[in-house]
UniProtKB/TrEMBL annotation:
Protein name as annotated: 4-hydroxybenzoate 3-monooxygenase
Assigned keywords, A-Z: FAD, Flavoprotein, Monooxygenase, Oxidoreductase
Lineage per the UniProt record: Bacteria, Bacillati, Actinomycetota, Actinomycetes, Kitasatosporales
Pfam families: FAD_binding_3
Superkingdom of the organism of origin: Bacteria
UniProt GO molecular function: FAD binding; oxidoreductase activity, acting on paired donors, with incorporation or reduction of molecular oxygen, NAD(P)H as one donor, and incorporation of one atom of oxygen
The organism of origin for this protein: Streptomyces cupreus
Length: 392
């Protein structure tokens, strides 16, 4: 098969890129190793920056998001049994965030793509990218039991952290920066209305907890657990007891409990690969960088990479010029490092450090007290959380 842009990975990055290219009249093919059902049910992100919502609208993929997404004006921080509201519009000149599950974004994009878009192949696993530094890179992939070749002008690796695209960048030209955080998150979905109107980030004595939501009747909650924890290690009753303890405040508030319908454990890692382009291969989203989920930045970064790459590829298609593509890695990495810093700081401020001492705990509380006491400190959190400006 032959195409202009070969996209590896049908997660949010790959599917959105395909949609933006389709609207810019650039043809492409998406190869996704899993089944449609699998990618539509993979529970992950839920918090969208304003710029992410705007980009999905530009892609013509925001009808259901506008109808069902929940616009939030802030978050709540809890520590030392107190609650503190961080008011985003007041601190940022009117910015908000939207809660809409990644599963729903993926479903919306797949439906559009299958209705009128360029080819999207499920159960098509890329094996390798070859000739990244030539004029005709190609992707070798397995589909329906046969090895096939996709010849392209450009390849974009949107194949997540465990994908193959990154491997096509020689070690001699690439460099990785990584930090593994010494804890994990146990995430649950529960059939119970959220116990709060806003997302709650809690620093409990025994660790972090996050209360999020998926709809007025479904809650999404996360709990800091030790590295190596398996979901079956935690019975439902124990999860609810621990969540209730970590969210506890000296006010009249109860965590409502309900049936748990999904449970999974996520490691916490910060990782950046530089550069994000080698020859005719570009990396976007988790294929190039991973952040711990505390700042809710992973999906949002994937969307901003894709926005930049779609514009650069469309400009090349209409003018033959590569100036924007030449700047792709540098432009994306500037934003990636800011999100990496913010996610790292949020993570360190809110989690119990397994090797931490009493001094570290006082530092965490001093940071939280500063945010709740100073409008400047709160505005800095709000600016990062709602999303730093998208590159033009
Ligand atoms: P992925 O979603 O990983 O998609 C990659 C795709 O490539 C997959 O479909 C995979 O099957 C496919 N693939 C892999 N290898 C191959 C191959 N060889 N050939 C073909 N296809 C392949 N981010 C936020 O912004 N906000 C949040 O609130 C948030 N919360 C999170 C909570 C949790 C618990 C977790 C785990 C993550 C969270 N994130 C959040 C991060 C976010 O989910 C990811 O950053 C996002 O999924 C990245 O999208 P992607 O398309 O780059 O990668
Ligand atoms: C969600 C996940 C996050 O990591 C976060 O910081 C906020 C919300 C979520 O899944 O809803």
């Amino acid at each position: 098969m032959r195409t202009t842009v070969g996209i590896i990975g049908g997660g949010p990055a790959g599917l959105l890129l395909a949609r933006l290219l389709y609207r810019a009249d650039v043809d492409c093919v998406v190869l996704e190793s899993r089944t449609r059902d699998y990618v539509e049910h993979r529970q992950r992100a839920g918090m969208l920056e304003q710029g992410t919502v705007d980009t999905l609208r530009e892609a013509g993929a925001a009808d259901r998001l506008h109808a069902e997404g929940m616009v939030h004006n802030g978050i709540e921080l809890r520590f030392e049994r107190e609650r503190h509201h961080i008011d985003f519009p007041a601190l940022t000149g009117g910015r908000t965030v939207t809660i809409y599950a990644q599963t729903e974004i993926v479903r919306d994009l797949i439906a559009l793509q299958l209705a009128d878009g360029p080819p999207l192949l499920f159960e098509a696993r890329a094996l390798a990218v070859e000739g990244a530094d030539s004029a005709r890179p190609l992707v070798r992939y397995l589909h329906a039991g046969r090895e096939e070749t996709l010849t392209c002008d450009w390849v974009v690796g949107c194949d997540g952290f465990h994908g193959v695209a990154r491997e096509a960048i020689p070690a001699s030209v690439g460099r990785t920066y990584a930090h593994d955080h010494p804890y994990a998150w146990l995430g649950i979905l529960a059939e119970v209305p959220p116990s709060c109107e806003e997302l709650v980030y809690a620093r409990g004595e025994h660790g972090f907890a996050l209360h999020s939501m998926r709809s007025p009747s479904v809650s999404r909650l996360y709990l800091q657990v030790p590295v190596g924890t398996a979901p079956k290690d935690w019975l439902d009753e124990r999860i609810w007891d621990e969540l209730a303890a970590r969210f506890a405040i000296d006010a009249d508030w109860t965590l409502e409990r309900g049936p748990i319908t999904a449970k999974s454990v996520t490691p916490m890692r910060s990782y950046v690969h530089e550069p994000m382009r080698h020859g005719r291969l570009l990396l976007a989203g988790d294929a190039a960088h991973i952040v711990p989920p505390t700042g809710a930045k992973g999906l949002n970064l994937a969307v901003s990479d894709v926005r930049v790459s779609s514009r650069a590829l469309a400009a090349w298609r209409s003018t033959g010029e590569t100036q924007l593509i030449d700047r792709y890695s540098q432009v994306c990495l500037a934003r990636v490092w800011q999100a990496t810093r913010f996610s790292y700081d949020m993570t360190r401020m809110l989690h119990a450090q397994p090797d931490g001492d009493a001094f570290d705990q006082r530092m965490q509380l001093a940071r939280l007290r500063r945010i709740t006491a100073s409008r400047h400190a709160a505005a800095e959190l709000a600016a990062n959380y709602t999303g730093l400006p998208l590159p033009e």
